[in-house]
Amino acid sequence: MFKIGMTDRLSLYIIILFYSGAFIVGYNFLNKDYDQKILEVDNNKRLVHLVLIKFKDQITSQQFQKLTDGAYNLQAIPVVEQLNFTDNISPEGLGKGYTHSLTMKFKTANDRDSVYLPHPIHKKFVDYFLPLTESVLVYDFWE
Question: What global pTM score does this model have?
Answer without folding.
Answer: 0.69
